[in-house]
Amino acid sequence: VLGRDSLDQLTQWVVEKFSDIKNKNLPIPTFGGHPFTERELKRQLFAKSIKDIRGLKLKWPFPDMGEYYEVKGVGSILSLLKMKGWATSLSAGSSEITLGHGFFNVSINLTPSGLENYQEIVKLVFQHIKLMKKVGVQEYIFREEKKKQLQNLQAIKFRFLEKSSSPADYVSFLASSLHQPFKREWAISGPYLIRNYDQKLIDEILDLLRADSFALTLVSPSFTDLDQREKWYGTEYKVIPIDPDFIQTLQNLDPDPQLKIPSPNEFIPTNFEIEKKENVTPLLRPNLIKNTPLTRLWHKKDDTFWVPKASVYFMLNSPLVYATPLHY
Prior knowledge:
This protein is about 25% helix and about 20% strand. It is of the alpha+beta class. One of its GO terms (molecular function) is metalloendopeptidase activity. This is 12068_t:CDS:1.
């Protein structure tokens, strides 16, 4: 319940409106067995897209693990894919489908060249998994010299979280949090804060990312010879087994030497003090602080919210952008 009234008043209204609903002490329903069975694993699906997009997704059946994270820096999968001209973006994370079950997904937006080399991209993903299993997820990522790198990033995110633009969405989010295995006092912070480093759990997660237990989806407008059509949207597609020899290749890969485990983040802030000035007349426009034949730099100090956040915008002007329709 969210409102401007006092907590006592909100509580009173809840009691008045909902006290007639009896607590039947029913157990939380559980579902035995993951819905993604052997029939769906070791399959690759080719789907024809209407828009000019190309994509690749690897999917593993997972227990419900909550939010994970993705890395895009030097030595990451994405940095290598961009260097080869095969991909433009990558996202990775877990998704919940029902209580106790979910998926871990790696989604990559491909270039035309990346589509042609999709098997090499899949190899890179499994090489990175192999590297993580071999080296391990370094504890400094979670707790570097007690700076608690990953913990601090999440704590900063939670501390300076912007207000939701939709109160209805926020209370719905909080209500769903009450169904999660958090302590009641963590109902608000539970989805954000990371409290423990659990090497055993990390190893168990990595063991689930196997070459004999995933499904592959490819999307492109150029696919032909698709023998099935989806009932509701009419999407053309086909499903074929992944070549057993390719699965064997994935299982026997050695890590690519260009792939690296991320280094410690040296730029996590620790000082959040703001040089706040009272009774300041708000600036109506930014100040031009640098003006050269090649660059202009504008700056406006936050004089409204006084929070340790910065927004940086770049505008690059070049005639090459409009040289031809292909450039655009």
